[in-house]
Amino acid sequence: MRCSLPRPWRPPRVPPDGGGRQGGAELTGRKARRSGSTTIVDVAREAGVSVSTAARVIRGSDATVDASLKDRVHAAAASLSYVPNVMARNLRAGAPTLVGLVVGDMLDPFYGEIAEAITEQAETMHSMLAVVCNMHRDPELELKYCRRLLEYRVGGLILAGGGFHQWSHRDRLAELTAQMVASGVVVTTLTPRGIDVPAFHVDNEEVGRLAAEELLSAGHRRIGILIGTQQNDVTWQRIRGMEDALVRAGAEYHITHVEYTSPAAEAGVASLFTAYPGITGVIAGSYAMSMGIFRWLRASGRSVPNDVSVVGIGNTRIAEWMSPKLTAINLKLDQFGCAALSYIAAKSGRSEPTAPPSTMPEIVHGESVSRVSQGPHAGGGQTRLSE
Predict the structure, then answer these.
(1) What is the pLDDT confidence band of residue 354, given thresholds at 50, 70 and 90?
(2) Rg (CA), the chain
(3) Sheet-wide strand order for 98-103
(4) Which of 61, 86, 88, 259 is most buried as measured by Cβ atoms within 10 A of its Cβ?
(5) How many CB atoms lie within 10 A of CB 160?
(6) What tens digit of pLDDT does each residue of 25-60 get?
(7) CB crowding 36-55: b at 16 or more within 10 Å, else e
(8) What are phi and psi of 328, to 5 degrees?
(9) How many CA atoms lie within 13 A of 361 on its CB side?
């Protein structure tokens, strides 16, 4: 008895560019569609071109490829539902196309404008995709997102979260960001965080000084301050700037720490005026706080700015719609965010390094500050710091 062994299977030969399609190409296409794991090799077989030509067409390379071949490659990719594996391409080429952005709270328009500026510049100037993560001012969630972004092999990371208890997890954040840097991720931050990465941020003591001097220059000497958590470097930097100006002027001031939200600001300003009804000017630690302060003052029968003047920290486009228009400090975080992105792109070889923007904040004058009246709410005198 004679036994015949089956002939070994050999893949169909891929013809040179411009050649006809092999009969096996249709079978390859059907198998790829069923498996859902289409590769560039499948696209090349379906189009009847070499893998290198298919890859150049899919990447949009500047290399010259015949128009008819381009059409065949695109048609094959469409028929096979092929989607390029960008992460795999990054690992092979070493040129990152993903950058992570962790923001404090997307419901705050302040962070929305940062995200808008960075995502637009990532696409238009650096051919990068910015992945935005909303940490809801939760330090544990910030750590989780950093780990996830590391797993997704982002080329860079921008930490833009602020206004929360940052001291509780500083050591873990420092350890995690050091691990990311060691793995090749370019990590930056838009606020001072006490970790060993480049920081792109405004001079926060000058922010506090500007806010206080705006009220002092209008004659206010009894001032309330609503600002965020005490376990935060930015908070204390801004308070130092405010106190520098207020103490030199001999002003009376009272500080209340609340969350950076409108409801928290409403409750905070209510307690301030209950304890110190003679306050004539208020500094709001954020734009969201400013809205809460406006709402409570109106509900209590006080007029802005005739009875109480308000200066906000953080200027947004929505502030233009407030009535009266808010006088606020421009923190330039959109500019600093773009500077951080440019730094990441330069470190990864995608662009030339650019000089950072001016670190000085600016006052944007609105209509929420007036000269202090001589009525029952006016006054000045001793310096007092509330707990």
Answers:
(1) low
(2) 29
(3) 129-134, 98-103, 156-160, 186-189
(4) 259
(5) 26
(6) 443 444 444 445 788 888 889 889 888 888 888 877
(7) eebbbebbbbbbbbeeebbb
(8) -145, 165
(9) 25
Nearest Cα neighbor of 278 from 207, 384, 387 is 384
Going by their DSSP bridges, the two strands 281-284 and 309-313 should be labelled as: parallel
Q: CB-based contacts of 182: which residues, under 8 Å, 6+ apart?
A: none
pTM exceeding the 0.70 threshold for the entire prediction: yes
Which one-letter amino acid corresponds to residue 231? Q
- Classified as helix, coil or strand, 132 is strand
Tokens of 317: 């486009």
Q: What are phi and psi of 130, to 5 degrees?
A: -90, 120
Q: What are phi and psi of 225, to 5 degrees?
A: -125, 120
Phi, psi of 245 (to 5 degrees): -75, -40
Helices (H), the chain: 24-35, 40-47, 51-59, 67-79, 86-93, 109-126, 139-151, 170-182, 204-217, 233-249, 262-275, 287-299, 333-347
- Residues in CB range of 152: below 8 A, 6 or more apart: 87, 98, 100, 131
Strand order in the sheet with 362-364: 252-257, 222-227, 281-284, 309-313, 327-330, 362-364
Say how far residue 318 (Cα) sits from the centre of its chain. Answer: 18
Residue 44's SS3 state is: helix
Cβ contact 186:156 at 8 Å: yes
Residue bearing tokens 């930097």: 237
Question: Which class for 215: exposed (0-12), middle (13-18), buried (19 or more C-beta within 10 A)?
Answer: buried
What is the dihedral angle through the alpha carbons of 46, 49, 55, 61, rounded to the nearest 10 degrees?
A: -130
Give me the residue label for tokens 């700015």.
305
